Amino acid sequence: MSSGHLEFESRIRRLLRKHTAMTQGYTTRMRPDGLIVAYPRRAPRPLSGRAIVMFLGAFVLFKGVMVVNLGPVAYDEKVDRLGQGSLVEQAGAFAMQADPLTALVAQKLETVLR
Fold it and tell me: Which residues cross the membrane (predicted)?
């Protein structure tokens, strides 16, 4: 085949891919020269690992602040009482249990908060 025909088929394949992507939605933008061009809408990004780590860090920090404010004994009593409730409350009690990382964070925060 001639190089012109190969370039033509390559362009057709690119256009078909773009057309298939645009069936899921598209956005339009104006280029600096005034031409309005349609682009396929990007798929939403999945939750990143960084966001998950930041959420877990904030959650452990929250639990540490709660342990410092209530005291370890009162905190454990409240979590035990929560564990005797409904299924949702039991799941919350499981998540709110004081773990070694929470105890370490509470110990460090106690010097700052008290």
Answer: 51-75
